[in-house]
Amino acid sequence: MKPITWFPPMWAFACGAVATGAGVGERWLPVALGILLAGPLLCGTSQAVNDWFDRHVDAINEPDRVIPSGRMPGQWGLFVAIVMSVLSMAVASLLGSLVFIAALVGLALAWAYSAPPFRFKQNGWIGNGVVGLSYETLPWITAAAATLGQTPSALTIMTALLYGLGAHGILTLNDFKSIKGDRQMGVDTLPVLHGARNAARIACLVMATTQAGVILLLALAGLATGAALVGAVLALQMLCMIRFLRDPEGKAVWYSAVGVGLYVSGMMAAAVALGSLPLPSGTGV
User: Fold this and answer.
1) Range of the domain at 46
2) Contact 146, 98 (CB under 8 A)
3) In a domain, 281, yes or no
4) Quick check: 110 and 134 in contact, CB under 8 A?
5) What secondary structure letter does DSSP report for 178?
6) pLDDT (tens digit per residue) in 51-105
């Protein structure tokens, strides 16, 4: 439940609201509640669930964490995850049926990612895909729909989907720090399945190609400035990728800080560009 983990879905929710161009400043309260829901509540819940069901793996990789170290004894970790889930649903209900349904989907994926019998995280291809779509695509589309009062445009949905797919690569970066424990516990992350160097190549390819897709979408929509800005941050990421690929295990944390910062900057640039388009007819704002 570290605040730094809340950032991706909070940022994605903000991007979804901005992408509508629907006067977010006038609707600051529901947007603020949505950001609170996406970050501290839903993302915090997913982290709590993950910490509980990963306590045996963490005992190998990170024994000083709160559950394996014994600082949170008994079943308190599970209790926190359940209470956070209930609180998330309560806040989501204040934001309307659409947000409530999206929150239920997010919670279902959060539990299925870490808990048996599904435990999607056992396979890096599936687990990282689930998290990427949950952290980026779902909050982006939910915020856009809630702000507009209707289904967002196909362009917005495609942009959100591409950034969610690109986040698969971001999640792979997080797996480099736990290769030893994951291998011992049978967690098939991409570094375990394909080796550190190949996993790094896959992560970079996924992040780069999805952003190239966003650039193409913006360009085809006549949003040349937005396409150029996303292209600029992608070019900077590719320079950073060269350093990362030389030493994937040693530079994964560094690239997570630098490269991911550029990635999410491109997200907001794309959202601002989308927000400059005329509002769709029938918008309920």
Assistant:
1) 3-275
2) yes
3) no
4) yes
5) G
6) 999 998 889 888 999 999 999 999 999 999 999 999 999 999 988 888 899 899 9
